[in-house]
Amino acid sequence: MTGIGVEEEFLLVDPRTGVSCPRAEAVLERHRVCCPLPDGAAVHRELRPTQIEAATGVCETADELYEHLAAGRRSLAEAAAGEDCAIIASGTPLCPSPLCPSPDRDYGAGDRFGKVDALYAGVVKAYEACGCHVHIGVPDRETAVAVVNHLGEWLPTLLALSGNSPFEGGRDTGYESWRMVEQSRFPGSGIAPYFADAAGYEEQVGKLVDCGVLVDENQTFWLARPSTRWPTVEVRVADTASTVDEAVLQGLLTRALVRTALADLDHGTEAVPLDPQIAAASVWSAARHGLSGPAVDPVAGKPVPVGDRVAALLTRTEQALEDTGDLNLVHTLLGRLEREGTGAERQRRAAADGEVAVLRMLTEETVPHG
User: Fold this and answer.
1) Are residues 295 and 282 in contact, defined by beta-carbon separation less than 8 angstroms?
2) CA triplet 224, 229, 230: central angle to 5 degrees?
3) What pTM did the predictor assign?
4) Which end of the chain, N or C, is less surrounded by CB atoms within 10 Å?
5) What pLDDT digit, counting tens, does each position of 104-147 carry?
């Protein structure tokens, strides 16, 4: 079985108003004292003091992934409540930006987040975007680069399934994933170029560092990449998932895509390079429309119904999902998503009753009960 690890980013907010709370350090300190986690799971600081992250351990089964994700959310919610905060899983903040600035933060000498702030200035100053990052184990870095090539055409569909950031500064942007729009402002964002081997990948990253647009070789903004810390492929395309179900769906589909890519590579089948402009159009369309469509087929280079891309994704991953025993669960989770709508759609429905209703909906969905 191929291991899955999921990192989830959350916003810390005032539980009454939804205004961002810059209390990540206090919440982390309280969490260390009072909130145990499953083996291998952890919580971390994030770029802004209004954000916090929960990471699962390496999970082999869907049940184990559910357990780790739920435990991370519950324990962070408990620690946050002790600091008069709540956690919510939304790709962007709910409240108007004048009411929830990202305060300046004192960084120690050499702090990497400080370097990020210094380099990207206004692009990152109020950047509170939250994603769901999925790590899937691979044998080595050479294989990781080849797998990333195979994943490119499917990343827009994973994004469409995950859209959960319709609001910016208190206004409806019209996008399913405004987070992706914010992320696209960084240099080298989007679907990674095709790389023939790991050496080519490292050379390109090094050039971007030399050009002064990345802090170091550990930083890229591509939506899938070889991890710099673990023997994994890291897929970073999804908005943070409002529910544990949706995070599990991203994890299982991503694992199935990686396993399918590995099988193709075993048979000598390499990925087809994508046209960079069509790839960017496909990501933009997914961020704009989500599951309401239309989508852009990044290989054919033409608009298609988004349902066709979801169906193609299921066809692509069917054997891998069957092999891991996850096929029925994925169909169930996709059916629920189609019936209830994406996180963005649910946020919009709640917004008909005001911002507090959106906050209540997200608070309830973020932290599982029972």
Assistant:
1) yes
2) 75
3) 0.95
4) C
5) 455 554 677 788 888 988 888 888 999 999 999 999 999 999 99
331: which 2 tokens?
Answer: 């169909």
User: What is the CB-side half-sphere exposure of residue 171 using CA atoms within 13 A?
Assistant: 5
Dist. CA 172–CA 184, nearest whole Å = 19
What is the domain class of 4-102+126-366 according to CATH? alpha beta
The domain locations on the chain are 4-102+126-366
Let me know how long the chain is: 370
Q: Are 176 and 344 in contact (CB under 8 A)?
A: yes
Name residues of the chain where pLDDT drops below 70. 1, 96-110, 370
pLDDT at 233: 98
pLDDT value of residue 101: 42
In DSSP notation, 181-246 reads HHHTTSTT-BSPPP-SSHHHHHHHHHHHHHTTSSSSTT---BSEEE-SSSSEEEEEEEEPPSSHHH
Question: Residue type at 175?
Answer: Y
